[in-house]
Specification:
The chain is an all-alpha fold and about 130 residues long. The protein is built from 7 helices and no strands. It has helices spanning about 1-10, 25-35, 40-45, 50-65, 75-95, 105-120, 125-130. Helix 4 crosses helix 5 (about 75-95). The longest helix has 24 residues, at about 75-95. The two termini are about 25 Å apart. The relative contact order is 0.14. The model has no long low-confidence stretch (mean pLDDT about 80).
């Protein structure tokens, strides 16, 4: 829900067209905006972040509507959630700094590396997870 609320208030980003439905923003669009605003690129996690945005959206929907599908794998969900949490945290830090820039990303980069390491430790492959 935090991604949706934050993403609604972020300006449209280049490349988000592929997340729209009939020209309207979706939850995936809002996740895309958060990931883009956080400064993530395809190199950050080794996959295009529009795929991460879709994964966040799918996990949210699958968890919110468990009667329409089986609950998603908890290990996969944890990794996707950690990525979403990082994006939200970075965006909120930017708002708090009021400059829109974070000059010291060392802690953020460490958290991204930790997230990727934990995913690997759990046997989660981002390429297959993000479909």
């Amino acid at each position: 829900m935090a991604i949706e609320a934050l993403g609604r208030n972020l300006t449209p980003r280049e490349g988000e067209e592929q997340t729209l439905i009939r020209g309207n923003p979706t939850f995936t669009t809002y996740a895309f905006r958060c990931l883009a605003r956080a400064g993530f690129t395809a190199d950050t996690f080794g996959v295009p972040f529009h795929r991460i945005a879709r994964a966040v959206s799918r996990r949210y929907a699958d968890t919110k509507h468990p009667n329409t599908t089986e609950l998603p794998d908890s290990g996969d969900t944890l990794v996707v959630t950690q990525i979403a949490f990082l994006a939200i945290r970075i965006c909120l830090l930017m708002f708090a700094a009021r400059t829109g820039l974070i000059t010291d990303r060392r802690g953020i980069d460490r958290d991204i590396a930790d997230c990727l390491r934990r995913a690997s430790d759990r046997g989660v492959d981002l390429q297959s997870l993000l479909g």
